[in-house]
Design brief:
With about 240 residues, the protein is of the alpha/beta class. It is about 45% helix and about 20% strand. It has a single domain, classed as Vaccinia Virus protein VP39 (Rossmann fold, 3-Layer(aba) Sandwich), CATH 3.40.50.
C-alpha cells in the first residue's frame, strides 16, 4: 500500500523518465552490472544497519531493492520507510515486497526528496541506492535535497550512499566511460526501449563526481566523519557520513 503525502509532485523531466522505465528497470540494472548491483545493494543495506538503527529511510527507493534488503537484515522492531516520487516505481516495489517478505511492514511513501514529509530528526539512518546522482547531477535543487536529508536525520544519524564514482586510474576511467556510453547505453535502450533514460544514465555517470569530490560536498553540507568504500576499481563507491 502506498501513502500519498504530496499530490503536487513536480513533473520534472527525470520524473517522467523514471515513471516510464519500471517494467524492465530491474532487468536492465542486473544486465548492465553483470548482477553486481545486487551485491552492492546488499553491502549498502548492511552498512545502513551497522549500528542497529530503529528508523530507516530508503530515499528514492525506485523498485524497492534496498528497503527489501534492509527488511531481510533488520529485526522486527525496525521501522522501514521507502520514498519515491515515481508512483509506478513504488507500485512495483510494494508488490515485490509483498512477494519476497512474509510479513512486510515497509511503509511506501509517494513524495519528493526536496520536501520530505517527515519531522526533524526522525530517522536514525537514510540510505540511497544509485539515485544520489539524480538528486545532485546538474540539479538546481541539489543543495535542498541534501539539506532535507540532514534535517530528517537525528544528531548522530547516518547517511549512506551507494553511487557510481570515478576510478582513480586514468586508463580504467576511460574504459569505464567507454563501457557506460557504449554497452550500458545500447543495452539499456535495447531492453527498455527508453533511449532517453539510458542516454542520461551513461552521461550523468560519466560526468559525476569523484569519491573525494562527493566527500567534500557532504562536508560542506554539514556531514562529518565521511568514510569511502570503493568497489570495482573505483567505478562504484559507498559513502557513509554522520550528522
Amino acid at each position: 500500500m502506498i501513502d500519498y503525502v504530496n499530490n503536487n509532485i513536480r513533473k520534472a523531466p527525470l520524473h517522467r523518465m523514471f515513471s516510464a522505465v519500471p517494467r524492465r528497470y530491474d532487468l536492465v540494472n542486473h544486465v548492465v552490472t553483470w548482477g553486481l548491483d545486487k551485491r552492492w545493494r546488499w553491502q549498502l543495506a548492511k552498512e545502513c544497519l551497522d549500528n542497529e538503527p530503529k528508523k530507516l529511510l530508503d530515499l528514492c527507493s525506485g523498485t524497492g531493492d534496498l528497503v527489501i534488503n534492509m527488511a531481510q537484515l533488520a529485526d522486527n522492531s525496525s521501522e522501514l520507510t521507502a520514498l519515491d516520487y515515481a508512483e509506478p516505481m513504488l507500485t512495483v516495489a510494494s508488490r515485490k515486497a509483498s512477494k519476497i517478505l512474509k510479513n512486510s511492514k515497509i511503509k511506501f511513501v509517494h513524495g519528493e526528496a526536496g520536501e520530505l514529509p517527515f519531522p526533524d530528526g526522525y530517522f536514525d539512518c537514510v540510505g540511497i541506492s544509485f539515485a544520489f546522482r539524480n538528486l545532485t547531477y546538474k540539479n538546481p535543487l541539489a543543495q535542498q535535497h541534501i539539506a532535507e536529508v540532514l534535517r530528517v536525520l537525528q544528531p548522530g544519524g547516518r547517511f549512506v550512499i551507494a553511487e557510481t564514482s570515478q576510478p582513480e586510474s586514468g586508463l580504467i576511467r576511460k574504459l569505464f566511460h567507454l563501457y557506460l556510453r557504449q554497452y550500458v547505453f545500447r543495452v539499456g535502450n535495447f531492453i527498455s526501449g527508453n533511449r532517453g533514460a539510458y542516454s542520461y544514465l551513461a552521461e550523468s555517470a560519466t560526468r559525476f563526481y569523484t569519491a573525494d569530490e562527493l566527500k567534500k560536498i557532504l562536508i560542506n553540507a554539514g556531514f562529518r566523519h565521511i568514510s569511502i568504500r570503493p568497489f570495482l576499481l573505483g567505478a562504484v563507491a559507498i559513502h557513509t557520513s554522520i550528522k
